[in-house]
Hints:
It is a single chain. By secondary structure, the protein is an all-alpha fold. It has one domain (about 5-85). It is built from two helices and no strands. The protein has helices at about 5-70, 75-85. The longest helix has about 70 residues, at about 5-70.
Amino acid sequence: MKRRSKKKTSERFKFKYIIILFLLLIPLFYLGRKVYKYLDLIFQVWGDKRKMLVLKGENEVLQGRIDAYKKGLLLEARARDDLGMIKKGDRVYLISGK
């Protein structure tokens, strides 16, 4: 009867462990990629929600300005401040500089 050498036996065990490890790692890599993509999408959604809130706030400010211009309130104020225009009946005070 022949005896198996320890070298061949240990090589077989190593080979079996390598195959088992390989079969376990394939699903782990696959699931890891899926989890990474899922988390990436969640962070993108959070970022997009923050951007949307900022844009909604800016939109409200701009809508308020549009309403004010339509009512003519800002036009009169800008004409007085920027262009130096006056209304009928206003008193004008001139201050001389030294």
